[in-house]
Amino acid sequence: MKEIFLDEVDSTNLYGKNFLNDLPDKTVIFAKRQTSGRGRLARSWVDLGGENLFLSFILKPADVFNEKFSNLTQYLSVILCEILESYGLDPQIKWPNDVLINGKKIAGILCETVMQGAVFNGLVLGIGVNLNSSLSDLETIDKPATSLNVEVGRQINLDIFKERLISAFFKDYDTFLDKGFEFIKSKYISHASFLDKEICVQTINKKNKGIAKALTEHGELILDSKGKILVLTIGEIL
Fold first, then answer.
1. How far apart are the C-alpha atoms of 111 and 125, rounded to whole Å?
2. Who has greater pLDDT, 183 or 235?
3. C-alpha distances in angstroms, 71 versus 96, 109, 112, 120, 205?
4. b/e per residue, 199-216, with b = 16+ CB within 10 A?
5. Could you give all domains of the chain from N- to C-terminal order, each with its CATH number?
6. Is pLDDT at 48 greater than 70 in this prediction?
7. Is the pLDDT of residue 16 over 50?
């Protein structure tokens, strides 16, 4: 495994995409500052300072794309939940991969597929975790947000947290690639904050309201919208 440290970068994911062809499989990129962090659906990820985590994995698991790769964000969300539990917290997952503490977002995850024409080049899987942030900085974010230091009442060692996350990610990575979402489904559901609730899901160009009934074996959300069953592959719970 190769690690690349950047003092400042627009986005660790953008850096990974730009240099993907030159970087070996399982390279980890992390930065002290990130000026243009991004989340799903073109949302921004706010940099709350150099003691927070900005990290991307370069992954080249196969020569062709496999649908199991789409669930890597959910795999990473489960790993993060397990680490946060070790701090005495009760993390929840908001489908598909947002991690919350007491209803407030503590982390964002974004996976981007890199293609060259019809050729699959690899994946860049990024994560941002609020580890050490002030309450005043958190209040500048347009949605409820929290940080690990706020939740536990002490400063968090960034290097230790980063190494724990990397180690846990690669520990079962190959098993996940073999088995897919089914490998993490029970753990994912145990942290799901949305099941059996009435929710509204924003997809690319539509809002869907209904009861979140279950998850498919591929991690898709099954929504009961007034008796009509919808299977959502992408989206965001509002």
1. 4
2. 183
3. 9, 11, 12, 17, 22
4. bebeeeeeebebebeebe
5. 3-191 (3.30.930.10), 198-237 (2.30.30)
6. no
7. yes
